[in-house]
Design brief:
243 residues, alpha/beta, 8-stranded mixed sheet, aa-tRNA-synth_II/BPL/LPL, BPL_LPL_catalytic, ligase
Length: 243
């Protein structure tokens, strides 16, 4: 068996900027060491994560103010994409791994981790799938979605988005799964996207508990860790070790 995967279960958010900086510091450490992969899981404080395109948008100052007025801390991340919102009803999963050739397999990682989120949600009887849906916020080819109801399969809602950062010697893949309380996310993004002048369909912003009422963050985390256990075996890692 290979190296173990280290699990960091961060019990309390440090705040939007601090949480993001911690991910980058773990990435920086991974690139200069021979450690195994690191899995970091936490529930964030209310945050609107803007992309660089948003920061350059003439409406950014107003969009930033809209986030603050709604109680969401604005953050500009170094990866691409448009604004995304999350809060304590969400689960952030950061996978950080040393890699001598991190640029190889970028698209494969998007597919793999998207499929892993789908597999975790399927454990909870949620018919999830991977792919962009028309009008979604922070649109991405590998977003995870599911129909809000079985009776209306043609109107899916976005449940998770993914992004990654590649540096010399390592890569960092981050997934945000919206599990509970989609209303505040839908509301703040409506104001933010209006300020940015970017069109989207608020009906596409959902949460896992919209699809399967009563689902909790803890249940999604447990299902995801089951999938990660299978992943670690497939990749030849010895085990997942709590830090």
């Amino acid at each position: 068996m290979g190296r173990s995967m280290k699990l960091i279960r961060q019990r309390e958010s440090l705040g939007a900027e601090q949480d993001y900086r911690r991910s980058l510091s773990i990435l920086d450490a991974a690139r200069s060491s021979n450690t195994g992969p690191i899995l970091r899981i936490y529930q964030p404080r209310p945050t609107v994560a803007f992309g660089r395109r948003d920061e350059l948008n003439p409406g950014f100052t107003r969009a930033r103010r809209s986030a603050l007025d709604a109680g969401f801390a604005p953050l500009v991340r170094r990866v691409g994409g448009r604004a995304a919102a999350y809060h304590g009803g969400c689960l952030i999963v950061d996978h950080i791994e040393p890699d001598p050739d991190p640029k190889t397999g970028i698209q494969d990682r998007y597919r793999l981790f998207g499929d892993m989120i789908v597999a975790a949600l399927e454990h909870l009887d949620i018919p999830a799938d991977v792919g962009e849906i028309p009008g979604e916020y922070c649109a991405g080819e590998y977003s995870v979605h599911a129909p809000r109801t079985a009776q209306d399969p043609d109107r899916p809602v976005k449940l998770a988005g993914t992004a990654q950062r590649v540096v010399a010697g390592a890569w960092y893949f981050s997934s945000v799964i919206v599990v509970e309380h989609s209303d505040p996310i839908r509301s703040v993004l409506t104001d933010v996207y209006s300020a940015l002048g970017v069109e989207w369909d608020p009906a596409t912003a959902g949460a896992v508990d919209d699809v399967r009422p009563g689902t909790t963050v803890s249940q999604v985390e447990d299902a995801l860790l089951q999938v990660y256990t299978m992943y670690s075996r497939y990749m030849g890692y010895g085990s997942i070790q709590n830090s």
